[in-house]
Amino acid sequence: MDQIVNKLLLSKLCTEGDNSIAVYNPADDSVIGYIPSLSSSEIYQKIEQSKAAQQKWQGKTASERSAVLQRWYQLVLENADDLARIMTMEQGKPLAEAKGEVMYGASFIQWFAEEAKRTYGETIPTPVASRRLMTIKQPVGVTAAITPWNFPIAMITRKAAPALAAGCSCLVKPANQTPLSAYAIAELAYQAGLPQELLVVINNHSSVVVGDIFCNHEDIKKLSFTGSTEVGRTLIKLTADTVKRTSMELGGNAPFIVFEDADLDAAVAGAVASKFRNAGQTCVCANRFYVHDSIYDQFVDKFITAVSHLKIGNGLDEGVSIGPLIDKKSKTNVLHLIDQARAQGAQLRFGGESLAGCFMQPTILSEVTQDMSIVSQEIFGPIAPVLRFNDVDDLIEKANDTIYGLASYFYTQDLNRAFKVAEALEYGMVGINEGIISTEVAPFGGVKQSGFGREGAKQGIEEYLSTKYLCIGGM
What we know:
- This protein has a 7-stranded mixed sheet with strand order 12-13-14-11-10-15-16, sandwiched between helices.
- By secondary structure, the protein is of the alpha/beta class.
- The longest helix is centred in the first third of the chain and has 21 residues, at 95-115.
- The termini are far apart.
- The chain has helices at residues 3-11, 40-57, 62-78, 80-91, 95-115, 154-166, 179-191, 207-216, 229-239, 264-276, 296-308, 328-343, 373-376, 392-399, 415-424, 457-462; strands at 20-25, 30-36, 122-124, 132-139, 142-146, 169-173, 199-201, 220-226, 245-249, 254-258, 286-292, 347-350, 363-368, 383-389, 407-411, 429-432, 451-452, 465-472.
- A hairpin with a 4-residue loop joins strand 1 and strand 2 (30-36).
- It contains 16 helices and 18 strands.
């Protein structure tokens, strides 16, 4: 490990103590290091400093802000291997997958570096000859982001890059399980020329303490959160007192539908990619599989064969496809879901065994029915429950029968059906003959209790801009 890791270890890690947070490797439960836990007064000071820096930053031209982000992007590319290694050590995902996330995270920096120069206002035809009407876009001010452990770099760049491009500052609260990736990506931003007060990493032993400050501090004008729907509801309530702008990317329960005319090999490949990436610990991964009765057995057999080739192990080892779950609590929850589904009548067709530490086998359950508990819950683990269907209208009703509305997937070769089903599914994102749909150029976000607001695409920077109307009279 080279420059970035050495500098990170020297400048960010601290010694074990009451004011430190231990960071563990979920593959072997070893301690990687310790990070400082900031006190409330220190967090308030960081916010004050961020406000002063933001007022200067918004005075920069869009091109000047863009240039800093472009340099940040280049540094991320140059240090991609080190960043991936940090991520694998603290999060567990396979090294190749971590490298893919680094590149995905970098794409948001590049995209919003370009979008910084496209925050256009407009002129409005006036109803009165003596007036001229127009709008301009201005940064909302100091922003805050609370990010999860499952994508510790991409979830930061997807929020911080548009905020910085718009002229805002950004305080980031990463998950305590994966803070080193946050420190590392921020360190590269500083090396690119970004003042440290504009991108601030904040950790505390209690996420509740940081959340309360972010939600209630009047100088923070925008809060972006990625995490569970339960926590999202709480944050929305807490921000009400300051009428803070928010965007919420919350839980998911994605249906993955395979119609009778689907390319089965493509559907199986998409199912494996969608379900078992990051050991199933993603908000957009396939959560329940609906397969047409006429091809059900064939699909399950092919699915089992494909999953049987996945290699489980330490993400740093070559050829590993599935790393550990983030911690033993997550593993216990996943094993409980398997036991519960089997008790309700599901058949264990593959896997299901608990392995050492935080590892477990990828699991396929067949003969699952809509009334089973596993169908209504966000699994967040490597379990694939497979249901049968015959009637399309009944299928759509079941697929939409959830409080969530983030991602959905289906496979068909019928163009007419593709449009009708895509329009009928109550989800913010629909993958048609694709198992991996996330990209910086398209809007990411959900409906229903999966949240509101969009990240990425041209919509992503709008979340950090206010529209000001100008009326000029006496013309």
